[in-house]
Automatic annotation (TrEMBL):
Identification of the protein by name: Microcystinase C
Functional note: Involved in peptidolytic degradation of cyclic heptapeptide hepatotoxin microcystin (MC).
Reported cofactor(s): Zn(2+)
Entry's Gene Ontology molecular function annotations: metal ion binding; metallopeptidase activity
Pfam family, one: MlrC_C
Domain Microcystin LR degradation protein MlrC N-terminal: 2-284
Family annotation (InterPro entries): MlrC, MlrC_C, MlrC_N
Any one Gene Ontology BP term: proteolysis
Homology family: Belongs to the peptidase M81 family.
Highest taxon of source: Bacteria
The entry's keywords: Hydrolase, Metal-binding, Metalloprotease, Protease
Amino acid sequence: MRIVTARLNHETNTFSPLATPLAAFRPLWGEEARAAGTGSATALGAFLAFAQARGATVAVPVSAHANPSGPVADDAFEALSAAILAAVSEGCDAILLDLHGAMVTESLDDGEGELLARIRAVAPDVPLGVALDLHANVTPGMVAAADVIIGFKTYPHVDMAETGAHVARLVGRMLDEGLAPHQAWCHPPQLAHTLRMDTRVPGPMADLVAATRAMEARPGILAATLFGGFSLADLPEAGASFVVAAESAEQAHAAAAELGAALWSRRAEFVYDEAPLAESLAAARAAAEGPGIGPVLLLDHGDNCMSGGTCDVMDVLAACLEAGLDGIVAGPICDPDSVAALFAAGTGAAAEIRLGNKVALPGFPAQAPLALTGRVASLGDGSYVVTGPTYTGQRFSMGRAAVLDTGRARVLVTEEPHEPWDLAIFTQNGIDPRAARFLVLKSRMYCRPVFEPIARAVVECASAGVTSSDYRLFPFAKLARPAYPLDRDVTWGPR
Ligand SMILES: [Zn+2]
């Protein structure tokens, strides 16, 4: 038995100006891809374990993952898909893919749908199972091409391997028992907000994921997933949906419709109404003067690295300085020019920089860089080892890093956009984040496991970046309308 498995992940923010060339994926091919995937807590890891348990010959043409950014370069998509297609064309008994489900390329709105259709063209009858991210924008093309699609049930995503194992189990039953899954997709016209998808807290997301688990316990239902979707993508199908696999088509459709109706009845709870920035800063100031120890975390969700943000929008830091706050630590802010200027000045030297607001955001008003003067407090290579719970033990690089101390704020400036995965982004650069009064991070979710425990309070702050929570800022053109909550008076019912 020969199994082809591969990993290809990208969440595309179609409004992001950040390019996504092949190099952004740091692709691993063949043996290197297999070695990296083996034992990893990913769907690919589970697929490899499945193949090994069956004693199958396994081909891993590629494992590639890029951080969220703008549309994928056409030549990158072609190179990555060609590797998978070539492996499938050699003949195989099963195909197991670890995809994201929200990949848009320069020329294709539905990257995964196109890849799966190409695979179907050369392997029409081979069982094809797909694991997707909870933030997938599922399309009819994906559902039609794959035998089984299952997504993560947790956000933050801690069940990637479990999801892969579920997909593999069903594909195993297709091979062994002739199981023939029928899939149904139900897509209420809803752009759900990422900040309303945390499955760890009580709320609509946790309830509806519990409903999918209850659905899976019913006889005849093989899998049920709530996809929260990724709203920062201008394509017709962007938004939340359900995919159900069942032993009969009727049952799959009925179950998907039932779940879709449940989501629609709670649509208002998936809306995130952001507070004006001035209000957030007033709340932060009050929290700093209140009880507790540690900094107040200010999370800039409008310019979030892990959703395609440029990490150079200066709204929040500028407003903090204007409001007279002090004891500020902020970063990482991506500005290679300022890093070069600070390195040229040297440690301890006085420096004057014009920080951020340099990457043009199509459709958004241009803003001037923030003029800052201070002293170069530290210079470093920007690499560190994660001690936090996500990516524990991995070494990450932010590009070269420099800290400018303005007196009221210490600002960490880096050459690359970087999610604050660990306290080490600051401690490696001479800053103790625990001692800050206000800690400004360009993050919405992934910083939380590490930074929340040291913080006295968390305040979400709005900014006009390409991951803004205010969907009215985005020039949607292809999105199917009406779409709630952009359009508030929408009537909908599952067909
Ligand atoms: Zn996700």
